[in-house]
Amino acid sequence: MTKIIGSVRVGGGKSLKRVNSFLAGAIILVILLLAVFGCTAKETEKLKVATGTSLIADIVQSVGGDKVEVVNIVPPTACPGHFDLKPSDVQKLAEAKLFLRHDWQGKMFTKELIDSVHNKDLQVVEIAVAGNWMAPPVQKEAVKKIAGVLMEKDPAHKSYYEENVKRLLSSIEDKEKEIRSRLEAAHAGNVKVICSEMQQGFLKWAGFDVVATYGRPEELNPQKIQELINKGKQAGVKLVVDNLQSGPDAGVGIAKELGAAQVTISNFPGGFPHTDTWSAALEKNVELLLDALKKSRT
Question: How far is CA 35 from CA 39, 41, 42, 104, in A?
Answer without folding.
Answer: 6, 10, 10, 45
